[in-house]
Design a protein that fits this description.
The complex is a heterodimer. Chain A is α/β, with parallel strands linked by helices. Chain A is about 35% helix and about 30% strand. Chain A contains seven helices and twelve strands. Chain A is globular. Chain B has one domain. In chain B, about 15% of the residues lie in helices and about 40% in strands. Chain B is built from six helices and 21 strands. In chain B, helix 4 packs across helix 5 and helix 5 packs antiparallel against helix 6. The N terminus of chain B is likely disordered. The chains are: A alpha/beta, B alpha/beta.
Chain lengths: ~250, ~400
């Protein structure tokens, strides 16, 4: 079980000519689930991509550390290797490139007995994770996200999270496109990961329904690029009843 | 320079042998060396498949030039200088399980000009596959075409001073209710200019599935014409190409719809690296009367280096109303979003790029119509991009 923290301090960032995040500060500890809620345009997806280092965004000020490692100075792939994972809102199609090959290239897993048998071990983990979230095992050999429905793509993101076992995961609207059964399976899998290996979660969502299956320890409301309220899960219920207007 | 490589390493005939072996099971084999027929072997009875020199056929006048009816420039040269035009005659109703393999070996030194000519006739109701390879004896498919990883920058240009000329012409007729798969591979050295012409005529309810692979040549042109003359005929045209160093690859296509309810589906995909250049220009022509025809034309180009360049020029010429036509093309570097997605999983940038390029070609190599050649073609493409071993 790992202990550590993902620490965001005074983060100001955006796209060239437009500041979207205007000083975001929050800390997620290992094993915790934090929800970030907010209206359209509040900067939720920008936060996700700035943390992962998507090209096209620029950081103006602030810091992001993972167990003390300065993430903002690292390229995307090294942030991932440091233990950060982004479950994307719109997972991207990569024609001709299979999930297995990608995950082998990402980080070859080591077997429980310490021996290095990446392909066999990967195969075992992939099938195990696929069964846990009800991802059709026939899709494992398909090119990444090609010809997958929106819901299947979200299960695929969750499956990758289970195989890669990151320290911290940002889930950008992992609930969109999922039917109620899939939502339950995905929420349960992520929540189990918080105790299985102490995954820390930053779950970005519009709706409280995700939080019925993935129970947050802390809820943040993001508005106009700032965290304007932080509280327990009751805050999510309050937002659900009253809307975001009170926070803008 | 001797036409046959001396010294250590496999001889040209060894290379041809291992190339043939890599293609898997076959029903027949024809080999020409510098245009001269050297080998004919078949394990299929003559009542199903007849092979040989077209000039030994009683109706030679009808055989040659029956498909290509637009005698221009290099075609006229081929007409004049083809030494041993080959004829592959698949009998009416014959089903030939394993492919017929034709290999044109170019082995001569500077100053050589070769004019391979092949006529393939699929009889009514027949079903067969043909693989035709034009290969340099010294720098062929299995030898030392430079790979991307070993020479990241261009070497001195060879396109300005070609030493050899190869002008292959292939005429394919697919008679009514028949089905033909045709795979062609061009693996010439960069000191060679190629001007190739592949023309097909498709009969009623007949299907041609063709796949061209362009790997070598200093300047290499491939003109692909498919005339849909019979009702409900189908032509599926595919090509994969990779340009490197100073290569210039030039593709010209014509999907010619002359009969009702005909279908053509073209997909050409390629990559240009170093200082290479590719041009795709294609025309869909739907003649008056070819109602309810369906024509598709797609060309995707990956530009892998700043000095490389790809042009794509799709065209439509539609004379009929009740038709469905689409065309599209893309030209650009490896997709930034795809790269970001892989990197966000922890894949290093250069590995991510190699995976995406390999995936781009795997996507089209999966569509090679003769299954036994898929791994050879996939491997040849991977070797050319330096994308193997990922």
């Amino acid at each position: 079980m790992s202990t550590g923290e993902l620490c965001i301090e005074g983060l100001r960032a955006g796209i060239p000519g437009r500041e979207i995040l205007q000083g975001v500060t929050l800390t997620v500890r290992s094993g915790e689930v934090h929800a970030v809620m907010g209206p359209n345009g509040s900067g939720k997806s920008t936060l996700a991509h700035v943390l992962m280092g998507r090209p096209g965004y620029e950081v103006l000020d602030g810091s992001v550390t993972l167990d003390g490692i300065d993430l903002l100075s690292l390229p995307t792939w090294q942030r991932a290797r440091a233990g950060l994972f982004l479950g994307m809102q719109h997972p991207i199609e990569v024609p001709g490139v299979s999930l297995t090959r990608t995950l082998l290239a990402a980080r070859a897993p080591v077997a429980d007995d310490g021996s290095h048998r990446p392909e066999k071990e990967m195969d075992v983990r992939l099938h195990d994770e696929a069964r846990r979230i009800g991802f059709d095992e026939r899709f494992l050999d398909r090119p990444l996200n090609v010809d997958l429905s929106g819901g299947e793509r979200k299960r695929n993101e969750t499956l990758q999270l289970g195989v890669l076992r990151p320290r911290f995961a940002i889930l950008d609207e992992i609930d969109s496109g999922l039917d109620v059964d899939a939502l339950g399976a995905v929420g349960r899998r992520v929540e189990e990961a918080t105790t299985e290996w102490g995954l820390g979660v930053l779950a970005i969502t519009h709706f409280r329904r995700l939080l019925n299956v993935l129970h947050p320890d802390v809820v943040h409301v993001l508005s106009e690029g700032r965290v304007v309220a932080t509280g327990s899960s009751e805050l999510a219920e309050l937002v659900d009843r009253t809307g975001y207007a009170a926070y803008s | 320079m001797s036409p046959v490589a001396e010294g250590p390493g496999p001889s040209p005939s060894d290379r041809v042998h291992s190339l043939v072996t890599s293609l898997g099971a076959r029903s027949a084999l024809m080999v020409t060396i510098d245009g001269v027929l050297a080998t004919v072997a078949s394990s299929v009875g003559e009542q199903l498949l007849s092979l040989g020199r077209a000039t030994e056929c009683s109706d030679v006048e009808d055989v040659l030039g029956s498909v290509v009816t637009d005698p221009r420039d290099f075609l006229l040269l081929n007409d004049a200088f083809a030494v041993d035009p080959l004829l592959v005659d698949i009998a009416t109703g014959a089903t030939i399980a394993d492919p017929i393999v034709i290999i044109h070996v170019v082995s001569g030194g500077p100053g050589l000009a070769v004019f391979p000519r092949t006529v393939i006739r699929g009889g009514a109701g027949s079903e067969a596959g043909v693989i035709e390879i034009v290969v340099d004896a010294d720098a062929g498919l299995l030898a030392d075409l430079p790979s991307r990883s070993s020479s990241p920058r261009a070497r001195p240009s060879s396109t300005s001073s070609p030493e050899r000329l190869v002008v292959p012409v292939t005429e394919i007729s697919v008679a009514d209710d028949s089905s033909l798969s045709y795979v062609s591979v061009q693996a010439l050295g960069t000191d060679t200019w190629q001007l190739a012409h592949q023309a097909s005529v498709i009969g009623a309810s007949a299907t041609l599935e063709s796949f061209a692979v362009a790997l070598g040549g200093g300047y290499a042109r491939l003109r692909t014409d498919s005339a849909l003359r019979g009702v409900s005929g189908t032509s599926k045209l595919r090509a994969a190409f990779i340009g490197r160093d100073e290569q210039m690859l030039d593709f010209r296509t014509l999907q010619d719809h002359l009969a009702p309810r005909t279908t053509s589906d073209l997909l050409f995909m390629g990559a240009v690296a170093d200082h290479s250049h590719s041009v795709y220009s294609g025309l869909i022509r739907v003649h008056r009367g070819a109602v309810r025809s369906d024509a598709r034309q797609t060309n995707h180009n990956l530009v892998l280096d700043e000095g490389a360049h790809a042009d794509s020029v799709p065209n439509l010429d539609i004379e009929e109303n009740d038709v469905s036509c689409s065309h599209g093309s893309t030209v650009g570097p490896v997709d930034e979003d795809q790269r970001y997605y892989l990197e966000s999983r922890g894949v290093e940038p250069d590995v991510a790029e190699r995976l995406i390029i390999a995936g781009f070609f795997e996507d089209i190599a999966d569509q090679v119509p003769i299954a036994g050649t898929r791994s050879m073609i996939g491997q040849a493409l991977a070797d050319r991009t330096g994308a193997h071993g990922v």
